[in-house]
Amino acid sequence: MTEWPALRGAMTDDDLEARTTDFMHALAASDADVANISADRTEQGMRVTFDLLDPDDANLVCDVAEEHGFEQDGDSRERFESVS
Fold it and tell me: Which of 4, 53, 81, 84 has the highest local Cβ count within 10 Å?
């Protein structure tokens, strides 16, 4: 399972949830082979997790994440956090 966290920063909860939802939809619509996309609230904001089924799609996932204000969390290519 991969996690991409989203940091709350100066965003409102509505902004954070909208950006998280947009990222999840964009990830699902991308050519990346991912499954089981979900989001969880953290102390800092939101974390998106998913199963990366094809490791060759890792760079594509990173590109989609960056477009939506998320960055990789840790060494895992399946965990991303939003950044303010």
Answer: 4
| 64 close to 23: Cβ distance less than 8 angstroms | yes
CB 16 within 8 A of CB 82: yes
Round to whole Å and give the CA distance between 42 and 62.
Answer: 21
Question: What letter does residue 57 receive in the DSSP assignment?
Answer: G
| Pair 50, 2: CB distance under 8 Å | yes
Query: Distance between CA 29 and CA 12 in Å, rounded?
Result: 26
pLDDT tens digits, 10-48: 457 788 889 899 999 999 999 999 999 999 888 878 888
* Identity at 68, one-letter amino acid code: H
pTM for the whole structure: 0.79
| Residue among 41, 61, 64, 40 nearest 51 (CA) | 61
